[in-house]
Amino acid sequence: MTAGSVTIGIGPVACAWRQPLALLVAFALAAVTAFTVVRLRTASTARPAAPEFVLAAIEAVAPAAILCGAFFVVYGIVDLFVWALSYTSLGWNSDHEARRVASLFALALVPTFTYITLESVRKKLYPPVAGVPSRYHAYVARDPGRLAVGAAFALLVPAGAIAYLLVAGVSSLWAVAGLAAYTAFASVAASPPGEREEPGHASGEVVGRLERAFAAAGYAVVRQPRTGEPEIDPLLVDVDLLAQKEDRCVVVEIKRGGADARPLSWTDGTRVATAARVLEFDFPPISSAESSKSALRGKIAHMDPVLVLVDVAADPSLKSFAKNERVTILSIRTAQREASVAYPASDDLREVGREYVALLHGESPAEATRGAVVAG
Questions:
Q1: Domain at 200-375, CATH from 3.10.50.40, 2.40.10.120, 3.10.129.10, 3.40.1350.10
Q2: What are the DSSP calls for 312-354, one per residue?
Q3: Which among 336, 344, 345 has a CA at the least distance from the CA of 311?
Q4: For position 252, what pLDDT does the model report?
Q5: 96 pLDDT higher than 50
Q6: What is the DSSP letter of 248?
Q7: φ, ψ for residue 130 (rounded to 5)?
Q8: Are 256 and 310 a contacting pair, CB within 8 Å?
Q9: How far is CA 5 from CA 24, 32, 57, 63, 355, in A?
Q10: Could you give the angle at which helices 2-17 and 110-125 cross, rounded to 10 degrees?
């Protein structure tokens, strides 16, 4: 994938140089570099789908297209330099010398740009947290038909244009520069958006109120849970509460919004889902980061992730993710005195929602039930 992408990206250089062999050299260098840095892939339980690899291939064109830009910059500098020397008795051909120097310069940088490409694609296809879908996942799930059309234009059009220019023997620098610009634009357009700003974390007051709500519903609760194991604790940084009731345990992350808060996307549910999977696989003694006195122990049959949304909504991608990954969403709207549970709903968490609303207004759970809408 990387070798093919780099070959397409560096294709305009071969067209400008009128040497198809440059494509083979670029492909070989990219393949060798890819082979030597296979170790860069991190361990991940997520398995990207084929369309996700296609999107990664499209985006992988970007560094190679930048390399083509470097070719034209070097060409211009060398051409100007040789032109200045043309007044001497050297008798150099400025165009020929400029193409040769610029092409050798570009090809020498292919391994470096291939490494950059692999590192960028690796981080998006294989996130460093096990089980988290790739950055291309939302693109693939949103509109597969549009993805297929975009992929055809992003990969087939440059490949066809490169083949035509080589067969026709066209070496116009304007044509190949335009092709390089097109490949760069297509790859940037296919790139997933950068990580958005993190939603506001819950205040201590909200965490404390939810802790009391779980306790009132019969749970033993630990705030800021930690295991003391360096392999697990980094995954618990965003977990606010761990609540245990008999052989069932819930991993709770709280997201707090406001009047103008954006709806949360599927990526906002991945951390709590991953933490629950890891703890379900290996449930060591757990204590609070604030105090070593409170601890949870015992055999756990169910470890359920719960995402608590306080005054912030979930967008369709988060709802779909929650349904597929069985992440329970507890939505609390303080102004409306409402609490709803979904994906999947449970009586225990409905009770937690009622207790939270009751604590919010200083009422008993029975009084809160009359004022709050607790839906499944």
A1: 3.40.1350.10
A2: -PBPHHHHHHHHHHT-EEEEEETTTTEEEEESS--HHHHHHHH
A3: 336
A4: 93
A5: yes
A6: E
A7: -60, 135
A8: yes
A9: 13, 14, 6, 9, 56
A10: 150
Mean of pLDDT values over 196-224: 80
Using a 10 angstrom Cβ sphere, with 0-12 exposed, 13-18 middle and 19 or more buried, the burial of residue 321 is buried
The helix-helix angle for 316-325 and 270-281 (nearest 10°) equals 10
* Cβ contacts of 217 within 8 Å, gap of 6 or more: 245, 348, 351, 352, 355
**Could you tell me if 255 and 309 are in contact, meaning their C-beta atoms sit under 8 angstroms apart?**
yes
Spans of all domains in the chain: 2-190, 200-375
What tokens does 199 get?
């939603």
Query: Which of helix, strand or coil describes residue 225?
Result: strand
> In 3D, which of 349, 112, 342 has the Cα closest to residue 250?
349
pLDDT digits (tens, 9 = 90+) for 263-319: 888 888 988 998 888 888 766 777 776 665 556 666 677 789 999 998 888 988 899
- The DSSP line for 5-51 is HHHHHHHHHHHHHT-THHHHHHHHHHHHHHHHTGGGPPP-S----HH
Structure tokens at 11: 């294709």
Residue type, 283: F
pLDDT for 251 equals 92
Q: Where are the beta strands (DSSP E) in the chain?
A: 200-201, 220-223, 225-226, 241-245, 248-256, 286-288, 295-296, 302-310, 328-333, 338-342, 374-375
Q: 32, 87 in Cβ contact below 8 A?
A: no
Contacts of 176 (CB under 8 A, 6+ apart): 12, 13, 15, 16, 68, 165
198: CB partners within 8 A, 6+ apart: none
